[in-house]
C-alpha cells in the first residue's frame, strides 16, 4: 500500500508526542489519525447545527497560541482493537453492546456507569481513556518556538504589481490563503496571471493554476512575460513552470487539490517541483451551484474545500490565492464578497477589486484595490492598480483578409 | 489513497451517515467491504456496493493520475496551452473592427456573451455567426456546424437565407480573384442548402426545456462532432419572469454556466449567449446594465455590450481575458452584420484636374 512520507520529530515532550507527521495507512496504531482540536476558523453553521470538524490525518499537531480549543477532543474515530495498548477486542464488543462506538462516545461517557454495565474493570477503562486523550488531543507550543518556525518557513512572494504588493504588506505570504474578489471585468484573472508570471519568472518557482471559468489565456500570460524579460528562452521556461488544470466541478477541484498534496508529500520533483503558489480562479464558480436553496450540504462541501486549501497552505508553505465573486449588500448597497459569512473566515487576507461601473458612458476610471480584511495592515487601505499596463504588442492580423 | 470521506461524490445522506459512524478516509471504506458497511450504517447491501463502486472509481482515478503524470486531458503546462491557442481558429464576424477588438473573432472554447437593448442587433450577429462558422478552412473559417437554441422565437429563416447567400457570394468573389484549386473545390460544397442544413435549430419555451436541452447537449455533440458553435439566443428571457425564488434562479444559472463551459471545453466549440438589459437605479441617475444579476456576469469569459449613440450602433468589449476594452461602430445591412462604411472620399478640384483619367478612390466593401 502506498505510504506518505512520515516525518517524526520527537520534541522531548513527556508523552513523546510527534510534532509533524503525515499519516501512513497501516497497522501503526500510535502514529495514525492524530487530530487536533477544531481550528478557530470553523464557525457554527447559520442554521444552528454545530459543525463537527472531521479530522484529517495530514494535519500537523501544533496550533497557534491565539487559537483556543473550542470543542472537545473531536475524534469521531471508531473504536478499534489496537488503537491503544489497553483496548482489546472483547472490550470493544462489550462497549459496542452499550452503544459506545467512537472515541468521543467513550471519552464523554461516565466511566463508573460503563464499568458497571459492561462489567469491565474501572482501572482499565481509566487507563485507556488517558491514552486516548493523549493520542487524540493537540498539544500547545509556546510562542517563541512558533515564531522561529514561521520565520524560517514563511516566504513572501511579489505579485508583480508594486501597488498591490504595498497593499499586501510586501506581497503574498506563504502559508496563508488570500482572496481577490471583484465584479466581472474588474481584473481578477489579470492579477492572477500577473502573479503567475512574477513567481514563475522572477522566483523561478512552479505555479499551479486551477482554472474553473475558462478565463486562462496562455497568450496573455505570454504577453506579460514578454513585457518583463527579453530572452525568449527564459520566457518559454517560465511558461513551462506554470501548470494549468481545468476543472469545472467541485469534486474535480477537490481531487486536483488532493493530487497536488500527494505530489508534494511524496516530493516528486518532476511534475510539481518547488511549488510555491497555487492560484484558483474562481472558487465561487464551482461552489455557487451548491449553495442556497434548502439543502445545507453545500456548506459542508465548502468547508471541506476550505480545509483542503488551508492544509495545503500551512503544511507545504505555499501561498494560496483564490478569486471570488461579489454580491450587493441588501441593506447598504455596497459590494461585498460572495459565498457568505462562513467563507469569510477562510482567507486571512481579502482584497476587493473594483473596475469601472459603466465603461461606455463615463471616462476612464482606473482599477482600484481595497483591503477588506488583513492580519497585518489596516483595513480600508486603497491603491490604484495598473492592469493592462504591460505593453500590448501589435496584434498580428489573424483575420484573413480576402 | 487517503481521500477524505467528505470529499467523495456521494449523496449527502449517505455521507452524513458515514461520518456519524466514524469513517474518515476512503481507505477505511474499502477495507470494510460491502457487508460490513451495510451493517455499520444500516443501508442495504446494494447501496453499499454502489457507494464502494464510486469510491473505487475515485481512488483509481487518483492513482492513474499520480502514476502517469498528466493523465487527465485537462492538465497541461502553459506552454502547451499557448501552442494550442495559436493554432486555434476564430469565427469571423464579417465586421473587421469587431474582429480586431476581439483579437481575431469569436474564440473557440470560451463563452461569449452579447448584451444589448432590444433591436440593437444581437440576433443578427448570432445568425451571422451561425453562417460564418461554416466557412471552409481555405477561406479562413473553421468549417464547423452550428447549434442554435432559440428561446424567444426570433430566428427568421428567410433572414438566415439572405445572410447565407451573401456569404456564399463573398466567397465566390474571393475564389474568382485568386483562382486556386482548393477554393473552387470548397465552393462546390459551400452552398445555401448546405449552410442551412448544418444549422441545428432547437426551440425551448421555458427554463425547464432550456436546462434539459443544455444538459442533453453533450450527447448530441458527441454524435455531431463537427459542431463548432452553440448559440443560445435569449438566455435571459425564460429566467426573468415567473421566478419567485431568486436563490434558486441563481443556483440554476450557475449550474447552467458550468455546464456550458464544460461543453465549450470538451467539444472545442464556441458558446455565444445573448442577454437582455435591465435598469439599475443609482444615487440620482439610472443606467442600463446587463440582466440576470451580478453573479451571472461571471459566467461569460468575454462580454460584449451593444448600445446606441444617437443613430449609430456601437459595440463595446467590456470583459475579456486578453484584449483591452474598446468601442467600435458597426452596421446591419441587407447582407448581414458589417463594418461601418467610411464616408466616400470627396476629391477636391485640383485632384481631378491633375489626373482626369483616374477614377476617384473609394473604399470597397470588405
TrEMBL record, chain A:
A GO MF label: four-way junction DNA binding
One of the protein's GO biological processes: interstrand cross-link repair
Entry keywords, A to Z: ATP-binding, DNA damage, DNA recombination, DNA repair, DNA-binding, Nucleotide-binding, Nucleus
Record carries keyword Ribonucleoprotein: no
Subcellular location(s) per record: Nucleus
Top-level lineage group: Eukaryota
Classification via InterPro entries: AAA+_ATPase, HRR_RAD51_Paralog, P-loop_NTPase, Rad51_C, Rad51D_C, RAD51D_N, RecA_ATP-bd
All residue ranges annotated as the RecA family profile domain in the record: 153-326
Gene3D superfamilies membership: P-loop containing nucleotide triphosphate hydrolases (3.40.50.300)
Keyword Nucleus: yes
One Gene Ontology CC term in the entry: microtubule organizing center
Alphabetical list of SMART domains matching this protein: AAA
Functional description taken from the UniProt entry: Involved in the homologous recombination repair (HRR) pathway of double-stranded DNA breaks arising during DNA replication or induced by DNA-damaging agents. Bind to single-stranded DNA (ssDNA) and has DNA-dependent ATPase activity. Part of the RAD51 paralog protein complex BCDX2 which acts in the BRCA1-BRCA2-dependent HR pathway. Upon DNA damage, BCDX2 acts downstream of BRCA2 recruitment and upstream of RAD51 recruitment. BCDX2 binds predominantly to the intersection of the four duplex arms of the Holliday junction and to junction of replication forks.
Subunit structure: Part of the BCDX2 complex consisting of RAD51B, RAD51C, RAD51D and XRCC2; the complex has a ring-like structure arranged into a flat disc around a central channel. In the absence of DNA, the BCDX2 subcomplex XRCC2:RAD51D formed a multimeric ring structure; in the presence of single-stranded DNA it formed a filamentous structure with the ssDNA. Interacts with SWSAP1 and ZSWIM7; involved in homologous recombination repair. Interacts with BLM; required for stimulation of BLM activity by the BCDX2 subcomplex XRCC2:RAD51D.
Similarity comment text for this entry: Belongs to the RecA family. RAD51 subfamily.
Protein's name in the database: DNA repair protein RAD51 homolog 4
Organism in which the protein naturally occurs: Gallus gallus (Chicken)
TrEMBL record, chain B:
Membrane-crossing residue ranges in chain numbering: none
SUPFAM superfamilies assigned to the protein according to its UniProt record, in alphabetical order: P-loop containing nucleoside triphosphate hydrolases (SSF52540)
Subcellular location field: Cytoplasm, Perinuclear region; Mitochondrion; Nucleus
GO biological process: DNA recombination; DNA repair
Polar residues bias spans: 325-334
Disordered: annotated segments: 325-366
Domain RecA family profile: 87-277
The keyword Phosphoprotein belongs to this UniProt entry's keyword annotation: yes
Signal peptide (from-to): none
CDD domains: Rad51C
Amino-acid biosynthesis found in the keyword field: no
Main location per the UniProt record: cytoplasm
Keywords: ATP-binding, Cytoplasm, DNA damage, DNA recombination, DNA repair, DNA-binding, Mitochondrion, Nucleotide-binding, Nucleus, Phosphoprotein
Gene Ontology MF terms in the entry: ATP binding; ATP-dependent DNA damage sensor activity; DNA binding
GO terms under cellular component: mitochondrion; nucleus; perinuclear region of cytoplasm
PANTHER family named in the record: DNA REPAIR PROTEIN RAD51 HOMOLOG 3, DNA REPAIR PROTEIN RAD51 HOMOLOG 3 RAD51C
Family as reported in the entry's similarity comment: Belongs to the RecA family. RAD51 subfamily.
Protein name per the record: DNA repair protein RAD51 homolog 3
Protein's organism: Gallus gallus
Gene coding for it: RAD51C
Amino acid at each position: 500500500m502506498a505510504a506518505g512520507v512520515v516525518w517524526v520529530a520527537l520534541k522531548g515532550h513527556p508523552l513523546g508526542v510527534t510534532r509533524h507527521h503525515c499519516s501512513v495507512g497501516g497497522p501503526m496504531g500510535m502514529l495514525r489519525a492524530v487530530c487536533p482540536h477544531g481550528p478557530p476558523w470553523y464557525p457554527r453553521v447559520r442554521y444552528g447545527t454545530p459543525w463537527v470538524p472531521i479530522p484529517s490525518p495530514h494535519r500537523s499537531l501544533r496550533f497557534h497560541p491565539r487559537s483556543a480549543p473550542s470543542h472537545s477532543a473531536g475524534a469521531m474515530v471508531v473504536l478499534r482493537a489496537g488503537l491503544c495498548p489497553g483496548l482489546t477486542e472483547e472490550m470493544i464488543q462489550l462497549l459496542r453492546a452499550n452503544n459506545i462506538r467512537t472515541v468521543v462516545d467513550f471519552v464523554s461517557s461516565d466511566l463508573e456507569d460503563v464499568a458497571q454495565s459492561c462489567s469491565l474493570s474501572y482501572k482499565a477503562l481509566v487507563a485507556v481513556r488517558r491514552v486516548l486523550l493523549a493520542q487524540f488531543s493537540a498539544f500547545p507550543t509556546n510562542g517563541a518556538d512558533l515564531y522561529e518556525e514561521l520565520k524560517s518557513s514563511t516566504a513572501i512572494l511579489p505579485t508583480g504589481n508594486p501597488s498591490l504588493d504595498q497593499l499586501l504588506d510586501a506581497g503574498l505570504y506563504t502559508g496563508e490563503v488570500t482572496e481577490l474578489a471583484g465584479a466581472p471585468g474588474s481584473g481578477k484573472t489579470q492579477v492572477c496571471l500577473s502573479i503567475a508570471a512574477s513567481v514563475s519568472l522572477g522566483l523561478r518557482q512552479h505555479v499551479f493554476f486551477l482554472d474553473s471559468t475558462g478565463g486562462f489565456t496562455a497568450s496573455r500570460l505570454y504577453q506579460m512575460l514578454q513585457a518583463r524579460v527579453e530572452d525568449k528562452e527564459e520566457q518559454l521556461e517560465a511558461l513551462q513552470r506554470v501548470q494549468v488544470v481545468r476543472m469545472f466541478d467541485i469534486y474535480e477541484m477537490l481531487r486536483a487539490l488532493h493530487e497536488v498534496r500527494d505530489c508534494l508529500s511524496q516530493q516528486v520533483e518532476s511534475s510539481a517541483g518547488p511549488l510555491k503558489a497555487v492560484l484558483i480562479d474562481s472558487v465561487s464558480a464551482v461552489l455557487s451551484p451548491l449553495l442556497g436553496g434548502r439543502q445545507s450540504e453545500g456548506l459542508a462541501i465548502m468547508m471541506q474545500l476550505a480545509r483542503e486549501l488551508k492544509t495545503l497552505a500551512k503544511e507545504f508553505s505555499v501561498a494560496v490565492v483564490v478569486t471570488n465573486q461579489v454580491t450587493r449588500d441588501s441593506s447598504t448597497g455596497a459590494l461585498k464578497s460572495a459565498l457568505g459569512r462562513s467563507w469569510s473566515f477562510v482567507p486571512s487576507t481579502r482584497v476587493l477589486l473594483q473596475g469601472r461601473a459603466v465603461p461606455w458612458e463615463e471616462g476612464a476610471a482606473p482599477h482600484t484595490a481595497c483591503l477588506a480584511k488583513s492580519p497585518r495592515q489596516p483595513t480600508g487601505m486603497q491603491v490604484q492598480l495598473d492592469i493592462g499596463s504591460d505593453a500590448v504588442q501589435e496584434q498580428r492580423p489573424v483575420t484573413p483578409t480576402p | 489513497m487517503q481521500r477524505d470521506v467528505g470529499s467523495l461524490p456521494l449523496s449527502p445522506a449517505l455521507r452524513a451517515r458515514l461520518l456519524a459512524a466514524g469513517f474518515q478516509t476512503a481507505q477505511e471504506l474499502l477495507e470494510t467491504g460491502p457487508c460490513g458497511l451495510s451493517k455499520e450504517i444500516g443501508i442495504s447491501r446494494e447501496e453499499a456496493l454502489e457507494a464502494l463502486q464510486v469510491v473505487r472509481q475515485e481512488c483509481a482515478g487518483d492513482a492513474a493520475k499520480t502514476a502517469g503524470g498528466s493523465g487527465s486531458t485537462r492538465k497541461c503546462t502553459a506552454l502547451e496551452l499557448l501552442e494550442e491557442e495559436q493554432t486555434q481558429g476564430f469565427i469571423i464576424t464579417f465586421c473587421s473592427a469587431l474582429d480586431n477588438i476581439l483579437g481575431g473573432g469569436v474564440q473557440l472554447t470560451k463563452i461569449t456573451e452579447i448584451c444589448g437593448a432590444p433591436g440593437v442587433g444581437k440576433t443578427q450577429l448570432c445568425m451571422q455567426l451561425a453562417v460564418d462558422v461554416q466557412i471552409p478552412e481555405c477561406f479562413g473559417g473553421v468549417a464547423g456546424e452550428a447549434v442554435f437554441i432559440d428561446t424567444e422565437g426570433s430566428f427568421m429563416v428567410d433572414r438566415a437565407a439572405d445572410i447565407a447567400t451573401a456569404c456564399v457570394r463573398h466567397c465566390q468573389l474571393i475564389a474568382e480573384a485568386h483562382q486556386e484549386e482548393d477554393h473552387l473545390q470548397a465552393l462546390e460544397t459551400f452552398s445555401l442548402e448546405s449552410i442551412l442544413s448544418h444549422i441545428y435549430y432547437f426551440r425551448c419555451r421555458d427554463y425547464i426545456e432550456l436546462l434539459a436541452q443544455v444538459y442533453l447537449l453533450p450527447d448530441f455533440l458527441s454524435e455531431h462532432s463537427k459542431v463548432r458553435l452553440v448559440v443560445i439566443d435569449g438566455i435571459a428571457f425564460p429566467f426573468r419572469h415567473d421566478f419567485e425564488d431568486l436563490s434558486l434562479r441563481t443556483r440554476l444559472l450557475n449550474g447552467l454556466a458550468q455546464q456550458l463551459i464544460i461543453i465549450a471545453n470538451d467539444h472545442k466549440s464556441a458558446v455565444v449567449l445573448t442577454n437582455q438589459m435591465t435598469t439599475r437605479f443609482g444615487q440620482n441617475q439610472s443606467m442600463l446594465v446587463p440582466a440576470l444579476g451580478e453573479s451571472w456576469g461571471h459566467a461569460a469569459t468575454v462580454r460584449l455590450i451593444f448600445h446606441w449613440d444617437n443613430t449609430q450602433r456601437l459595440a463595446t468589449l467590456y470583459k475579456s481575458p486578453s484584449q483591452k476594452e474598446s468601442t467600435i461602430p458597426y452596421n446591419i445591412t441587407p447582407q448581414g452584420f458589417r463594418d461601418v462604411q467610411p464616408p466616400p472620399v470627396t476629391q477636391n478640384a485640383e485632384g481631378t484636374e491633375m489626373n482626369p483619367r483616374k477614377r476617384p478612390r473609394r473604399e470597397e466593401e470588405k
